[in-house]
Structures are given as C-alpha cells and as structure tokens.
Specification:
With 265 residues, this protein is mainly β. The chain is 11% helix and 55% strand. The chain has helices at residues 3-21, 42-47, 122-125, and strands at 65-74, 79-91, 94-103, 110-120, 128-136, 145-156, 159-170, 176-189, 192-203, 215-229, 232-245, 252-264. Strands 1-2-3-4-5-6-7-8-9-10-11-12 form a 12-stranded antiparallel barrel. Strand 8 and strand 9 form a beta hairpin.
Length: 265
C-alpha cells in the first residue's frame, strides 16, 4: 500500500470524525433553546443499510457519524476478507467516508476515501438518492481507481429497498469497471433487522494488457442480519460467491461468510 495514500485516508477519517462529533449549538437563531436532538441509535443507522457488507446507504441523516469493521472468509477466492468504513457528516447533506480493506490470500491493502451528497430525500421526492465520488487504492481491476457510485432507496414501513449503480475508472493501464448492488431489509423486531444483500462487478476494458490475476466478473449474494443495542450493532451474513478471472479458464465459486461490528455516534 502506498504510505502517502494511507496517511491521507487516515487524516481525512480523523477530520471527519472530529467534525461529526462536535457539539451542536445549544441556542437557536431566535434566542430560544434548541430542541434536543433525537438520541443517537444504531437501530436507526441499521435501518438505512449502513452496516451492510456490500450495498451503501442512500441517506446519512440517521446519525452524525457511524463506523464498522468486518471480517470473514471467501472460499471462492480462497482467503480471508477484512473491510472497514467510517462515515461522518461534514455540513448539511455532505458526508465524508473513508475505510481500509483487504482480500486474501494475494490481495493488497486498499484504502479508500469518498465524499457523498444526499441529493434527494424520500419525504420530499419519493426516494432517497445519494451520490458518492472518491478514490480507492485498489479497484476491481486491481489498480488504483476513481469511483462514482449512486445509491437510491425507498422505505415502505418496516421494509427498506436499496440499489447502487457505480463506475470505476482505473488510474493505470486504461482499466475501468462497472458494478451494481441491491439489498432489501425488514425490521422484524425493534432490535433486529434481516434481509438480503448482493453485488455484481464487471470488467469493462478489453485488451491484452491486463494486471496479473485480474477478475473478469464477480458476484456475491446472501442473507444478512443485524442486531442492535443502543449505539452498537452486530451483523452477520453468509451467501454465494463466484469469480471469473480474465486469464484463467473456468469460474471459481464457493461460500462467503462475514461478521460485522458497528457503532453510531
């Protein structure tokens, strides 16, 4: 991993966390005491899909900041997986997201950082829409990439449906890729949310100059569950994993399982 990139991601994460955790003003503009903010709860954060393994949420107003770390195993790739994210509100509808991930056994550490804007809210426009724009140290094509995902969601009572559509432009060798993610969540109890989460990615660049072990496409899909208690959350998922490599015949498939620990602030 490039040391400068890692330090940049860490610095941005720290800046966002400090901004998000700053105390709000106690007096409104008219001189009256401000109404107390609703209690921060991982329950509200989980409802937006923030702790999902793959799909990212389409709104960020359930908390000032949240964080999660995830570990698991992907038998199709034959190695452990580690991922993490911190997302914090900077101002208004603008948030900063940063994280670090790794997929074994031959993967590299991949820092990432992105800004997101909540462009639409369901209360006014019928759907939630957030636009993300950022950088990852290792994209799907195994080279550093600029990423532009869009996330949309709509809730129907206890049911929340989410979808992401993204594009990654590799900063080396002309690589680029597309991805789609979908999820559905149902709150079956005040403290428990269950659902499904899925992701598919596809290499969009076709020539003979390919990074070693570059995937042609991959798919993940399976059920998920999140249990919350106050500011904290524990999630688990298990499902199907498949990957096709560009320079290797055949498809490798297997099971993927993960455990997530999260918190809201």
């Amino acid at each position: 991993m490039n040391a400068r990139t890692a330090l940049l991601a860490a610095a941005l994460t720290l800046t966002a966390s400090r901004a998000a955790l700053a105390d709000p003003p106690a007096i409104e503009d008219g001189g009256e005491p401000a109404a107390p903010a609703p209690a921060v709860s991982a329950e509200r954060t989980a409802d937006t899909g923030a702790y999902l393994p793959y799909t990212v949420p389409a709104r960020s107003d359930a908390q000032r900041a949240y964080a999660w770390v995830q570990g698991g195993y992907d038998s199709a790739r034959g190695g452990a997986t580690i991922d993490s994210a911190v997302q914090a509100n900077l101002a208004g509808r603008v948030s900063l997201r940063a994280g670090v991930g790794w997929t074994g056994p031959s993967g590299d550490v991949r820092p990432s950082v992105a800004l997101s804007v909540d462009a639409l809210r369901q209360e006014s426009h019928g759907v939630n829409l957030a636009i993300y724009g950022g950088y990852t140290g290792q994209g799907f094509n195994l080279v550093p990439a600029a990423t532009v995902p869009a996330a949309v969601s709509r809730s129907f009572g206890r049911l929340n449906l989410l979808a992401n559509l993204g594009y990654g432009y590799g900063l080396e060798q002309g690589e680029h890729y597309g991805e789609a993610r979908v999820a559905g969540l149902v709150r079956v109890h005040r403290l428990l949310t269950v659902g499904v989460d899925a992701r598919a990615r596809l290499d969009l660049e076709r020539d003979d100059d390919e990074p070693t072990n570059e995937p042609d496409w991959d798919v993940f899909a399976g059920p998920v569950a999140t249990l919350t208690a106050g500011r904290f959350a524990v999630g688990a998922g298990v499902g199907y994993s498949a990957v096709k490599y560009r320079l290797t015949p055949g498809t490798t498939s297997g099971m993927v399982a993960n455990l997530t620990l999260g918190a809201a602030f």
